[in-house]
Amino acid sequence: MSSVSQNRHDGIATETKSPAAIDTAVNGSSSTNDHKSLPLKRKEPPPEKPADIQRRSYIVASFWFIVLFLGLPIWWKTTTIYRADLPLNQMMDWADGRACDPVFPIKVAVDAPTLQQHEIESLVRITQQTLDTTNDFKGHRIQLEVSRSASEDHTNGLAHDSSTALTIYLSPGDVATSSLDSRSPVLEITYPPNSIPTPDAASSGFATYLATQLRDAFAEERDVMSYLLATSSMPFEQRALGNPQGLTDTLSKRMTRSLKYSRTYHLTFSLFTSGPVPSSWDIESAIEEYMKPILDMLGPIHNFTIDTQVQLYASPGVQSQVLSKEDLSSFINAAEWPLSPSIGGAPTVNFVVFIGNQTIGAASETGTSHSWLIPQWGSVYLLPPPSTDYVPSELLKQPVLTFTSHLLSLLGTPQSGSLPMRLSTLTRIRSADLLLRASSSLGSLARLSLALPSISIPSSVADGVAKSMHHLQLACSNLGGSDGLEHARIADVEAERAFFEKSMVGQLYFPEEHKIAVYLPLLGPVGVPLLIGLLNQIKAWKKARKEKTKEA
To answer: What digits encode the pLDDT tens for the residues 122-148?
Structure first.
């Protein structure tokens, strides 16, 4: 009998299934669902071959070998900062004033043709004791000696010994008087009768008077030296008791006005006129006659090169007929006037002669002036228009003499005493200034190298420091002379060159944060895979070791 029967009712066919068929269908579906609901077993990967494990270990080890034994040495070699060995302790000794005792010996010769030899020696001995006892500034030591040229004319400058700063000429008189010669380094002193001490005397009133006059003769130099020491970083014990505030301000203005020391200066003489005339001037003859003797006397301290120029239709920066004090600063028309700042590396001193009807109004309104000095730059002279288109040397006499005086001021020449005495004092002042500046530069360099351990110090810096210290020692051994000045100049140049080394100055503005910005992009992509691979190998090695331990 069939399990499926068909019944037709009213033309409608229906299909019926037997219970057995229904059960089979239901049971078959149920068994299929039961099979799908069972959890699937994860298929494990095939075990690695020992050769593959060993190969992977070799690969990781090779990467780390390259990093440790090739990459790190190359990185260390290429990024290591070279720091030349600097004598830091000796540099700080110079900066703190322990390496050199800057005592300038000032030799003073005593010339007394009318006195006996034993009388001169007794006077020199007692005066020297008085000077040593009353000396309040240890940077100076006046050394008296008997003149070896007592029979020569004391007014003859050619007979003066270059190593002697001052010569005292003693002559008899009614009272004790003193006066500095205006043309030679001679201090003329008259002594009254019976004022010369005997050989066995311990003190003398005339010797005290003589010592006082000597201190007054070198008072300006002592004040300038004291100011230099007071404004430097060197804690010298050789400082004076202190200058009055007014004197300190005056010295500060003078030092600010002066040019920085240089062995060579370039002098530029310029003629400017607002019209077409004059078109020429006899400046060469005027310089040769009125300025050349002073330049020759400055030869042991400075060298000079000279050039001249003429500029027509040159309009000044101020058109006022009478220039006020405020107009002087804007008179120079730097935008149109061809005034070069320097030629050949030497500092330039500008001397300008302007042809025009302008004058400078005096503060007291009692007169006018025709020239003024510009600190650390030069000088300007207002000259009335000549009657011809040519300026002769006679009309240039006063401008050139004014320029000579201004040049001495720009060079920092003292104001008291004869010109030879002033130049001798200038040598000692410049030597002290350069000595202090070079020592200060060495100290700054030493402190910089200690404060920035990551800054590179090239070998050129070490060479400059060695040369500077060598010349400082030579300058300290020859204080007061032209040789000491030259050694101090070289020491200052070498110290500044070492301090302002280009490779060092650039690293002063390189912060440590820049290193993080450079290394992080490199260490991230490279270091993380290497580190993870190493950790995985360590874990696998530990696992294999545990399994071997269990099997054993």
So the answer is: 999 999 999 988 887 777 888 999 987
